[in-house]
Amino acid sequence: MSTFQPDKSKVREVLDTVKAAGRGSLTAPEGKRVCEAYGIAVPQEAVATSAPEASKLAQGMGFPVVMKIVSPDILHKTEAGGVIVGVKDAAEAASAYEQIVANAKKYKADAAILGVQVQQMVKGGQEVIVGAMTDASFGKLVAFGMGGVLVEVLKDVTFRLAPATREDAGSMLDSIQAAEMLKGVRGGKPVNREALEDTIVRVSQLVSDFPEIAELDLNPVFASDTGAIAADVRIVVDFQPKTPRYRPDEKSVVAAMNRIMKPRAVAVIGASNETGKIGNSVMKNLINGGYKGTIYPIHPKEAEIMGLKAFRSVKDVPADIDVAVFAIPAKMVALALKECGEKKIAGAILIPSGFGETGNIEGQEELQRIGREYDIRLMGPNIYGFYYTPSNLCATFCTAYDYKGTTALSSQSGGIGMAIIGYSRSAKMGVSAIVGLGNKSDIDEDDLLLFFEQDENTQVIAQHAEDLKDGRAFAEVARRVSKKKPVIMLKAGRTAMGAAAASSHTGAVAGTDRIYDDVLRQSGVIRAKSLRQMLDFARGVPILPTPKGENVVIITGAGGSGVLLSDACVDNGLKLLKPMPKDLDEAFRKFIPPFGAAGNPVDITGGEPPITYMNTVRLGLEDDRIHALILGYWHTIITPPMVFARNMVTVVNEMKQKGKVKPVVASLAGDVEVEEAAQYLYENGIPAYAYSTEIPVEILGAKYQWARSGGLLK
Questions:
Q1: 180-191 pLDDT per residue, tens
Q2: Full-model pTM
C-alpha cells in the first residue's frame, strides 16, 4: 500500500464526464474505472449493447457470470430487476440481456439505458461492505461492515474519519459485532486482512482526494484468504461546493481564549445593584469569588454599582478590557456587542436567552456577523457563564465555586451545568474550569480543547454536548489533545427520542450515534454513557496512575462481589490475569484461609482480619506481572470500614515509596459506615464507591481506554 500511487487523472476524467452530462451518479463501468485507478480490486467486466454481444462477452470471460443493467437513472439495480446472477451459458446470457432491459424499462420507462454489464462472477469468500459517506458534521467518513442481512438488519457497521490510516482500517475489522467471522469459523479460512485494510484505506483516500464523491458503496466485497474483490460499485456525486465553516487559526483561538479565560479586566454589561437581577448576581460572584482583576460595571444610568464606578458603555472605560459578560435583554445585545468590538474586547459571554434556541435564528446570525467583523469571540448565547478557578473568576450568575483542582468541565445545557457544579461541590472534586456553551454561536468544544491543551492548570477535560457544530475540527484537535490529557465526552441524543429532544432543546440536529461513537474512539476520546458516569470519570480518571500493562487482579472479601466485579471487567474491556501464574497463585494462598480461593478473583473471605487485606494487596502491588488492582471490601466487625480504608492507604503509600505505583480502585459493600470509608479512600488517591461494583471498574476501564489510545501500555 505504501508504494501504491493512484491515477488521479483517470478519476478526474470520469468525474468531468459525469458533471458535463449533468448526472448525479456514475454508471457501474465508470465506477469500475474509478476503483481501478485507486487499486481497488474489481472483477473482469464489459458492457454489451445487444444480446449477441452479451453472449460473446460472457463466453470470453468464462461462466458463470453476473449481468447488470447500466443506467445512470437506475442506482438500485436489484429493485429494478436489473441484476441476474449465475448465468451459466451463452444462450442464457442472451436471454438474460433481454430480460434485464425489459425489467429496466418497466421499472423506469424514461431511463437512459446504456447497455448491460457482463461481469465475472466472484466465487467464495465472506461478503462485506466497504463504503464512504459525507456527514454534515464530520465530513468524509469511511464505513465497513458485514454484507447481506447483517448490514441491512443488524446494521453491523463501523465508521472512521477519512482518510483512514492502516491502523484505523485494522481497528474497523475488529470493531464490528461479527468480527470473529472474519477470522474463520467452522473450519473456514480467515480473510486476508491486509487486502481488506488496503481496500478501506484506498476508498477513504479516494473520497478525500475528490470531495465531490458524496457516497460510495462497494457491496458486496468478497473477502477470502487470497484477497478482497468488489463485486458491485455505486458512486453518488455532488458537484455543489460546500461553504466551509468559519474557523480562525489555532494560534488566534488560543490567544483569544487566554484573554477570555484569564482576563486582567472584566466588564459586566447590565450590572445592577438590585438583588435578583442577573447583573447583580454576576457582580457578586466576581467580587465575592475573589477575582483579583479589574471589574467595570456597565449601566446607562447608575454612577456606582456595588461600590465600583459604573460606565454608560464599554467605550467609556479608560483602559483595556479582555472580556465582557452580558446580562441584558436579547434585543439589546447586538448594539452592545458592536461597542465591545470597537473597544477591541477579546470575548463576549452572552448569558441572555432568546436566540437560536427559541427560533430566533436571524438574531443569532446577526451576533455571529458582528463577532466576525470585529474579531470578538462569542460564548453562548443562552448560557450560565463560566468559572476559571485559578484566577478566582466566577463570571456567572450561579453560585461561586471554591474547590480548585485540575479538571475542566463544560456543558451545552444550563441545567447540566448546574448538576456539574452541584456534584463537584458535593464530591469535593477540584476543578480548574466549568464553562457553559449554550447555543454555540461561535466558541465550541474544540475551542475549549485548544485552550485546555496548553493550560497548565488543567489535566483532564470533560464535556457535555448535544451536538458538534464541526465534528471534524473537534476530532482532529481531540486526537492530539487526548494523547496528553484525558478527554471525556457525554454526547447526548444517543437514542432516537434523545436526539429529538436535543433538537428541540438547542436547535441542534443530533447525528447518527454510531458515527459519534466510532469517531470519538478513533480520536482517543473517552465516551461517557450518562451524566453521572461523566462526572465519575472526571473525578476518578485524573487521580489514577497510568497502568503499565493489561493484567488486572481482583482481591475481594466476598465471593459475590468478586463475580460482579469480574462481569464489570468484561463490560469495560479489562483483562483479568488468567491463568494466574503458579508461583503467584501459591504466594496468594499463603495469606488466605484454606476455604478461600486464589486464582482471579482472589477471595480472602469475609472473616479475615485486616492483615489479610494488607498482605494480599501488598503482594498485588509488589508483583510486576500485576498492573492494576480492584478491591472488593465486605463490611465485617473483624475489619471495620475505616480500618480497611486506612490500611489500604497505608499499603499503597508504602509501595509508592518503593516505586510500585499502580492504579487501585475499590468497591465497598456494607452499612452506612462504608460511605465515610469510600470518601477517605478517594481523598487519598483510591477511587472508591460504596454500594457499587460497577462504577469503580468503569473508572479503571476509562483510564485503560485512554492509556491504550495514547500508546502508553507495554
A1: 989 887 777 899
A2: 0.89
